[in-house]
């Protein structure tokens, strides 16, 4: 297993997470093993378990509880990816065929359900009621975030408040919960718990903002999924939201037509992409992401300097420095 550089400080713990993850994927149903193994083998930086472990170790959480809780944070994330790819009709995930493309939508849905169920069981056994309650609320938030986004498809009048509500639920809520649950397992004070929760929320916002910007400036080879996907799916994300505020009525109408076309052409997608780039929407998005990273670091001021705190700073920096 290749360890994400900022997580070298918890290398041994993450190797234990990976081992526990394989042990959890146990079933007499071969499709569970094949499809679940396929997505676990697809790579990824294991950001969610890494954050959970570091947050927990900052407050001296016992590893016999922390490792299982960190492990199923990745299970929760994986389950949402399985379901999201079906909703989006995605054929690629991390540069390889998605689970639904390989095994079919029915298998992807059910394996996602299986992973959620495993996560709930482990959280109940190892995390305790407070961790389980926090994680369950996050599953609700993530589902509502996806539904809210579907409600707003093609809506060029989406507000910034609505956009940030969507991305909190979709993305930031789980990163926030990883940090908060690590803190809970470690018996953190309310002040420590809030600091770690806030850190996770802010890097979650930054991560989604950068992801939204990449959809306008990258290609499929770079990001592992079709570029311009948000435009194709009618999603109004921050780069477009920012550009629309500076658009003429004619430009707004042209964008609205493309977003509400169920099958936009490459030329139409390129029209919207160029509109956003000409207005500087992607630059404004990266700038806002950097501001959230700054706020994430500031939230950790209550913790003394340590390799663990440094690792959290490095994760935050990576979000706005990555090429994807």
Topology:
Blueprint: H1 11-24, H2 30-40, H3 47-58, H4 63-88, E1 92-93, E2 96-97, H5 99-103, H6 105-127, H7 129-151, H8 160-185, H9 190-217, H10 220-223, H11 229-232, H12 238-244, H13 249-259, H14 266-279, H15 281-298, H16 307-321
Antiparallel strand pairs: 1-2
Helix pairs in contact: 1-4, 2-6, 3-4, 3-8, 3-16, 4-6, 4-8, 6-7, 7-8, 8-9, 9-15, 9-16, 12-14, 12-15, 13-14, 15-16
Task: Quickly list its features.
single chain, two-stranded antiparallel sheet, about 325 residues, 2 strands
Short description:
This protein is an all-alpha fold and 324 residues long. The protein has helices spanning 11-24, 30-40, 47-58, 63-88, 99-103, 105-127, 129-151, 160-185, 190-217, 220-223, 229-232, 238-244, 249-259, 266-279, 281-298, 307-321, and strands at residues 92-93, 96-97.
Q: How would you characterize this protein structure?
A:
The protein has 324 residues and is mainly α. It has helices at 11-24, 30-40, 47-58, 63-88, 99-103, 105-127, 129-151, 160-185, 190-217, 220-223, 229-232, 238-244, 249-259, 266-279, 281-298, 307-321, and strands at residues 92-93, 96-97. It has a two-stranded antiparallel sheet with strand order 1-2. A hairpin with a 2-residue loop joins strand 1 (92-93) and strand 2 (96-97). The protein is globular, with a radius of gyration of 20 Å.
